[in-house]
């Protein structure tokens, strides 16, 4: 961590890499923690002082007094869900208003955006994206088509602007023949959320962050989702609608590329994906079920079963390239403790063609594997690198060599203490 720089902490596959725990270990070092993309589609589980919190829109530095947390302009925010999340933290005794600033440029998710999310998914039939249903796609679409409402709009003539946009949405829903919805209760809560949000500092966060950087303060940009869900570089159209990559840190916070310091790329010792879309390493057998059970791979937002597979070097190399990852963090090594053999996807194959470069369309490609021996040892009690079983140490070495990037942190269990910083 360098003073005056923004370090990025990014999930580099399909999200759910376990950023919550890492952010929790990282935040004490930083002056500012900022979210730059996504919204309540994310769900970071954080255990703080024995209590479990699921953060969706609020950055993970919120538990530390004296730290500024920012919801940046690249985010989308649902006032009702924000209120629920924030009130839970307030009830636990955290004073939010002194620690959390929200960008006036962040876009608002309306109740009708959520209805539109469902309507668009229904209209897609078999090619559904499997969204989280939080209205993410419709909100970002309207940001791009310049018809959305921003947090700053809450400060002037809001009711009028809201009514106009809602009427527009109702017309679209009518045109789609999607009329069987009732947002009465939801809208009431949403309006309460707007009132509640107005009591927070709604600011020009890009100016604040740059001021902090000039003062030599350190900023952690906390990613959401993952590189393969990025709107440009993910498995389009089975992606989320924001820039989840390092480039998104610049646009989503208003910081210049040269202010980026370290880029931490988080991945798991295996792969998971929620929702629809190509996933060449997916296991449909009992091995996949075993990984899901041991790794508790169920969605934090929707509770859906996560699809599971072996680690994917094609995706990881692509993500390292796109993000400029400087250090890798490998999570959940312990989930593979009982496997005799560990498989690593080294290439994709389709119709006799083999590639190690991420194809334009990953549909129909099959994984080509290299097998390495399992370590067959319980890793969860390990506290330092020197205690790694030889097969685990050589699995890490193999990944580092292939990925040409150091793995500087290895996690072997959910607890903070089960985080091993390597001697790099
Ligand atoms: P949306 O972001 O709700 O539009 O969903 C688009 C796709 O991204 C779906 O496949 C979701 O399952 C996936 N997705 C969105 N947020 C997350 C996340 O935080 N973790 C994993 N997958 C996500």
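^ Assign residues to that structure.
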């Amino acid at each position: 961590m360098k003073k005056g720089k923004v370090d990025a902490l990014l999930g580099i596959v399909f999200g759910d890499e376990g950023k919550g725990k890492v952010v929790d270990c990282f935040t004490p070092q930083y002056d500012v923690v900022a979210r730059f993309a996504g919204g309540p589609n994310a769900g970071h589980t954080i255990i703080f002082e024995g209590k479990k919190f699921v953060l969706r829109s609020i950055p993970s530095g919120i538990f530390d007094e004296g730290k500024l947390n920012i919801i940046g302009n690249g985010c989308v925010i649902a006032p009702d869900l924000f209120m629920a999340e924030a009130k839970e933290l307030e009830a636990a005794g955290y004073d939010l208003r002194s620690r959390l600033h929200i960008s006036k440029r962040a876009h608002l998710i309306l109740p009708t955006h959520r209805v539109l999310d469902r309507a668009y998914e229904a209209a897609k039939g078999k090619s559904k994206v499997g969204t989280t249903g939080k209205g993410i796609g419709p909100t970002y679409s309207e940001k791009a088509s310049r018809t959305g409402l921003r947090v700053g709009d809450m400060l002037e003539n809001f009711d009028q602007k809201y009514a106009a946009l809602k009427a527009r949405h109702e017309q679209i829903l009518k045109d789609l023949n999607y009329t069987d919805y009732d947002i009465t209760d939801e809208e009431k809560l949403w309006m309460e959320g707007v009132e509640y949000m107005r009591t927070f500092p709604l600011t020009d966060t890009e100016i604040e962050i740059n001021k902090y950087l000039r003062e030599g303060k350190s900023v952690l940009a906390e990613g959401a989702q993952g590189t393969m869900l990025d709107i440009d570089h993910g498995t389009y159209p089975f992606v989320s609608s924001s820039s989840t990559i390092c480039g998104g840190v610049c646009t989503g916070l208003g910081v210049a590329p040269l202010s980026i310091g370290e880029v931490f790329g988080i991945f798991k010792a295996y792969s998971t994906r929620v929702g629809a879309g190509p996933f060449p390493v997916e296991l449909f057998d009992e091995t996949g079920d075993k990984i899901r059970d041991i790794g508790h791979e169920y969605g934090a937002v929707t509770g859906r079963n996560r699809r599971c597979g072996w680690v994917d070097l094609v995706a990881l190399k692509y993500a390292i390239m796109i993000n400029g990852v400087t250090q890798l963090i490998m999570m959940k090594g312990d989930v593979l403790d009982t496997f005799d053999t560990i498989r690593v996807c080294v290439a994709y194959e389709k119709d006799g063609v083999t590639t190690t470069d991420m194809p334009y369309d990953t549909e129909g490609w099959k994984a080509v594997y290299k097998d390495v021996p399992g370590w067959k040892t319980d890793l969860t009690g390990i506290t330092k690198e020197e205690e790694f079983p030889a097969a685990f140490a050589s699995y890490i070495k193999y990944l580092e060599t292939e990925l040409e990037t150091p793995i500087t942190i290895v996690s072997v269990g959910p607890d903070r203490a089960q985080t091993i910083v390597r001697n790099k």
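The first helix runs from residue 19 to 26.
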